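Two quick folds needed for the group meeting slides. Do the first one here.
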Amino acid sequence: MTYKCLLYEVKDGVATLTLNRPERLNALGDTLREDLHDAVTAAAADPEVRVMIVTGAGKGFCAGGDVKAMNEGKARGAPRPLMEKVAPGRDRTVLALRDAPKPVIAAVNGAAAGAGMNLALGCDIRIASTAAKFAQAFVKRGLHPDWGGTYFLPRLVGMAKACEMIFTGDLIDATEALRLGIVSRVVQPQELLPAAYELARRIAAGPPVAIRLAKHSLYANAELDLRASLQNETMAQNICFETEDAAEGIRAFAEKRAPVFRGR
């Protein structure tokens, strides 16, 4: 699969989506937003893909919106399309990440600013390089957060810290991001992709139906009370219990061997 601003590769059940505008620190301009949405949708539908990794080419993960292009557009007096005002493409991409039936890992290799930070927050798991930096930089440009920042960030760091980060646009490093729970692991730059692939392969070796339902339950139940969450768990467990993978997992335990899950 070929894109103008994104590299797409599938290997060992893992789809790697590499934002590929390194000269702009992978800012979300040109065709990158459309490429990313298409790639996420394609990976979600591909039965050979069990996990996705999103990362950036070059020194940055994603610098957010393409501010240079925004400035050029304003200088020309170019109008914003109506659909970008009422149903922007960025929202489709955030929802595609959340609705994807496969886990999505962000391998944050450098700066993740503004929309770039929120793109990472829209993934299920985040691993950061020691070179990674994070900022809700919108306020520095006189703009409001988008790409789900006002939804994701308070749920990770609490409302007061989210307010501080969004109101100031201050930059934090990977160590602080780990302390705040924004990322789950920090590794040396040369270890980032190997660590992301190792985790992705371990998840990919698991039972796809159970993982798909677990992802759904985790996010759905975050908005529900305990009673409704337990009902969701029961429905999901009933589905899983009837799968061939469950039979294989139980049989493998009894036979003292590693299970082989086939997604059936």
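Then this one, please, same format:
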Amino acid sequence: MEGATAEYLRERGGGEYGTTTRRPRRVGWLDLVMLRMAVRVNGLTSLAVTKLDVLGGLDRIPVCVSYRRNGESIREFPASMRVLSACQPVYREFKGWADLTESDWIATAKKGKRALPEAVRKYLGFIEAQLKTPVRIISVGRPRAATIGR
């Protein structure tokens, strides 16, 4: 991802720049194709989703659900880098959520997952359903108090 949205996420994410070179780090939307492979290959039984506060203030939040190559939909991560390089991401968009203050996120986290904005809960529910893996840790900010553990 490049452009204004990438810069927004880079800055909001805590200054995503190389420590020595100060080069901008690559940022992008959640890629469920790649994550599906990571869950399978590593035998993951639960997930941690962090930096949900960083996405606050965006109108729409895309999630890559598959790749398209030569008109074909690909839901599993390709074994070949040649195939992968010819793929384009296919996104499903989710409604964004409000840009809360750090103290508002902490107050929400203290109340638990059910207190999260509905759009956040739908986003997390979709991730769980697609990966068939529960999200057990949710982070909505840097402080430890902004983490919800299930």
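Slide caption for protein two: The chain is about 35% helix and 25% strand.
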